[in-house]
Design a protein that fits this description.
about 110 residues; alpha+beta; Dna Ligase, domain 1; 3-stranded mixed beta sheet; 5 strands; binds zinc ion
């Protein structure tokens, strides 16, 4: 859901709730690892994995919108090796794959 979709849903029961409240909550949940921001869609999904230091790989169905989370922990060392020759210091990794889910591709 986008922040404004979440705001709209919350305003059904709390009409006075304002966008900054939703953004603060989403920022806190994201920083705590309890939600992920889908950068390519500017939307948010709850975290469904128990990964502490891992890398979430998010698959996004462009037909039905289903988002699945996969543990991409093995990718971190490969990504680190890939950029080893540069002086680049990554702060965060974003891996989002777009396509069709099992149901939609059947
Ligand atoms: Zn689908």
């Amino acid at each position: 859901m986008t922040a404004y979709q979440i705001l709209g849903a919350l305003q059904q029961s709390e009409p006075d709730i304002a966008p900054p409240t939703v953004y603060r909550a989403l920022t806190a949940l994201t920083e705590q690892g309890r939600a992920h921001r889908l950068e390519s869609l500017k939307a948010f999904v709850p975290c469904r994995c128990a990964h502490e230091q891992s890398l979430p790989v998010l698959t996004i169905c462009d037909d039905c919108g289903t988002v699945e989370e996969h543990d991409g922990g093995d990718l971190v060392s490969k990504l680190t090796a890939l950029i080893a020759d540069s002086a680049f210091v990554p702060d965060r990794h974003i891996v989002e794959l777009h396509g069709q889910c099992r149901a939609c591709s059947a």
